[in-house]
Amino acid sequence: ERYLAKVKALLHQELSAENGDAASLLQASNGCSKNGAYGSDEDSERAGPDGEEDSAMEMEEAAASSSSSLSVPMPRARKARRSRSNGESKKSPASSRVTRSSGRQPTILSMFSKGSNKRKSEEVNGEVKQEVMSVEKEEEELEEKEQDEKRIKIETKDGSEIKDEITQVKTTTPAKTTPPKCIDCRQYLDDPDLKFFQGDPDDALEEPEMLTDERLSLFDANEDGFESYEDLPQHKVTSFSVYDKRGHLCPFDTGLIERNIELYFSGAVKPIYDDNPCLDGGVRAKKLGPINAWWITGFDGGEKALIGFTTAFADYILMEPSEEYAPIFALMQEKIYMSKIVVEFLQNNRDVSYEDLLNKIETTVPPAGLNFNRFTEDSLLRHAQFVVEQVESYDEAGDSDEPPVLITPCMRDLIKLAGVTLGKRRAVRRQAIRHPTKIDKDKGPTKATTTKLVYLIFDTFFSEQIEKDEKEDDKENAMKRRRCGVCEVCQQPECGKCKACQNMVKFGGSGRSKQACLQRRCPNLAVREADEDEEVDDNIPEMPSPKKMLQGRKKKQNKSRISWVGEPIKSDGKKDYYQRVCIDSETLEVGDCVSVSPDDPTKPLYLARVTAMWEDSSGQMFHAHWFCPGSDTVLGATSDPLELFLVDECEDMQLSYIHGKVKVIYKAPSENWSMEGGLDMEIKMVEDDGRTYFYQMWYDQEYARFESPPKTQPTEDNKYKFCMSCTRLDEVRHKEIPKVAEPLEEGDGKMFYAMATKNGVQYRVGDGVYLLPEAFSFSVKPASPAKRPKKEAVDEELHPEHYRKYSEYIKGSNLDAPDPYRVGRIKEIFCNIRSNGKPNEADIKLRICKFYRPENTHKSMKASYHADINLLYWSDEETTVDFRAVQGRCTVVYGEDLTESIQDYSAGGLDRFYFLEAYNAKTKSFEDPPNHARSSGNKGKGKGKGKGKGKGKSSVSCEPSEQEPAELKLPKLRTLDVFSGCGGLSEGFHQAGVSETLWAIEMWEPAAQAFRLNNPGTTVFTEDCNVLLKLVMSGEKTNSLGQKLPQKGDVEMLCGGPPCQGFSGMNRFNSRTYSKFKNSLVVSFLSYCDYYRPRFFLLENVRNFVSFKRSMVLKLTLRCLVRMGYQCTFGVLQVG
């Protein structure tokens, strides 16, 4: 009330200000006393350290109240500029007062006249009611134009000192707003340190044009040195600047490239041999890129660490930055050289402590040209994330027998002190810290939709790309820490020698400690455990020493108590067969499964089924049909440790080798198997009690095939000693033995036959056969391949990099390709007669007619380049070969006798050849084939040019043995093609006549439209496969467009080729987020298979799919299919 009254009085005086009494008005308007203090006398007395601020606050409240009651516009509160001295970004309001010595003070009305009339007031019952209006936001341009702060100089009483004091006036401030950022480089647009690229000179060239400049060429037009297009050209670039699409200069180490932000660079490009960083001799280039990757090299003890960029066209090694980019580049160089020091130091010093590393860093002199004089511990901790990532990369590139550097005491201390996040890129980490909300909003690529079975198998490998269930996450968080299962250490087998291995059940131990092999400690898990100084042996229970002496090593020498139970069930010569036996008070029967102690105690226990037991002169014996553990198959360490596989291996063993009885359960597929896909089934098939296992497949060790167990049943005669492995092996051996049949006549010490068999295939007189290349030779000697000229002396100064070409090896050279099979036609089948008058049927011979391939003629290999691959030339040359050289049967006909075109004939079946001419090796000429070369059944049907008749014996011998079986008409499989593209894979199945594609999924609209045109009757879904699978799994019948979705039981065949960008050897940067997402689509494809459970499943990809990540993706894929119950195999096909 006191201030309101005072302000009202001042306003009345202001209205009559024409009388010139400005001095008193000035004093009253500021509420100043004569001694220069503000406010009333009471205020002056209590003014202390905060007295000035309290007075200013009261003055503001009075001014606001007066403006409300008098409906006079109020001036806007002004903000001070952001102070750059202390790094704060808050805007503190500045005082609107001036110093006393200025001699002039603005009036209240003049101040009010600057504001906007936005307020209304009304007086009700003598009370003043105010409606507060919002204060207008201060614009950025006005803020930059104001002074930094307004200060008031106040003299002390004696006038000897003058101090500056910032007045603070609390006003109603608007809500805080985030300063705008560049959407590419994420730099603040109002940052005064933000710099723009100044542009390229007029003579700067685009990247493709620059790369063809003769100043950068290592070879001239007459040189023949450049032969390979696999590697990108390498150049150096100086005076470079890196910028985004908007021209902002920005660093390239902040994760922008990893997030697929397009960064470009400009500079002067120089040849790779030029070490001079000046612009002389360089080619000015503009907007090189975008940058696909940046890399560091030079960890070989040299002075400098080389930094490089990779674009789609070339690799560039950085030399010196431009003047405008130098400050940005200098900040990056520190951590790059820091990582070089750490990696090189740890290469030869693996047992050093953190203090030793710190001493090495602090005593290392930085290379000349950097903007700092020495390295410090602060710089090491500041760049620890980057340094640790370099050490991780070093471990990944190391040999399998090298211990990881990451778990050394030095690196563990660094990880702990700096709070390093293992296994994550720094770019993602920084983004999560600065913008946690934006990460949640940025959806990015869709997560892979999976069934539970596929998720449990692939979770470790694609943990960031698979969509997880919250409940599943909670379960996993509560679970014990697990090894990653992906790194090279996790893929190694157990050593069998350490304490942990000796305690495992598989090595004959008790299995109580549950510890991993000491040689298979996961580095990611080891770092976490090492921080807590956990030792693997800490949790191993102490066992009495006498028991340790009795385990493992001397068990073979102990005499077990073995006694037969009951009388022999069968006596076969010298063997008495029994049904039961008692070993150390444990009874075993024929058909039980046992564990067998190996000779080498470091080997795990072998598991086998007892198929027979007997006693003979060798002692008490049993016949073991071995099981194969999953780790010994192609699955390796990805297999289920409790899953076994049947194999065709068996052996006679002594009963004393038996370690104990185990339980092996056969898990047969359920009757409703096809409808159980996608259910939440547990991945464990049996409980792990150390003595229970299961099997569901037979494994072919030669071809890495998983098949259903053979259904060979014993008979009553051999039930007491029936072995499935022996039966199958006998059948295979019986088929492999060559045999002759249908004898014809005897003459000249030979017995002739009409037929011979081998591997279940019949060969008759007149059949075409494949023979090994060494089975016979041709009369025309093959032209020797052109030899490369020997290495000549090279001028090292002119070609300084020539020493790198240390061999003449050419990858994939045609000279290294094996020769194809020889082709012949059987003329006679015979065996030589022994001295006892009986034919030697163990030595079968064939008399054949040779066929020439185009490359076997005098035209050499060049003739095959222009000829059909199925074209042969008839020859009257004959030779005798061993029947063991025969590799298969084929069909050879005279082209003129065909009733269909040659193309249709060749495409109508496998192993089909034809000839149109005969080749005379003596005259090196091509002639018409003789009449007897034609099939007798087809004579006269074609345009045969030969005349005359062949002899009866020849005609008979050349008749085809049998007609080809008629094609079976089978119903076509209802097919779903995922990642269909334009339909190439489906078209192949259509031409084979085995499938009918009813559904296809292709996300790219142009390819989907092409598929619709190629297959009008197919339902094509132009959506993300993960979204469609989620719809089907949730029970939806149609998608958003109303298209009917296939349901369980509808799909009989599933085929597809998941995107190969992440696996392809052509992609140098397959570890980026985009490539990882593409790789995770394999998981989605397998989830389709698990949900629909089709009869047939085919996955196609590039050759690197087999070797990618140490074959982990292939192994996990097979692991999924085997767990689903599929018979499966894989192969690398020749598709060129």
UniProtKB/TrEMBL annotation:
Cited SUPFAM superfamilies: S-adenosyl-L-methionine-dependent methyltransferases (SSF53335)
Biased composition (Basic residues): 550-559, 940-952
UniProt-recorded name of the protein: DNA (cytosine-5)-methyltransferase 1
GO biological process: DNA methylation-dependent constitutive heterochromatin formation; methylation; negative regulation of gene expression via chromosomal CpG island methylation
Naturally occurring in which organism (per UniProt): Ciconia maguari
Matching PANTHER family: CYTOSINE-SPECIFIC METHYLTRANSFERASE, DNA (CYTOSINE-5)-METHYLTRANSFERASE 1
Biased composition annotated in UniProt, kind: Polar residues: 92-115
Region ranges (Disordered): 27-149, 533-561, 925-966
Protein family (similarity comment): Belongs to the class I-like SAM-binding methyltransferase superfamily. C5-methyltransferase family.
Record carries keyword Lyase: no
Regions crossing the membrane: none
Subcellular location, principal: nucleus
Active-site residues from the entry: C1060
Biased composition, class Acidic residues, residue ranges: 40-61, 137-146
EC number, as in UniProt: 2.1.1.37
UniProt domain CXXC-type: residue ranges: 477-523
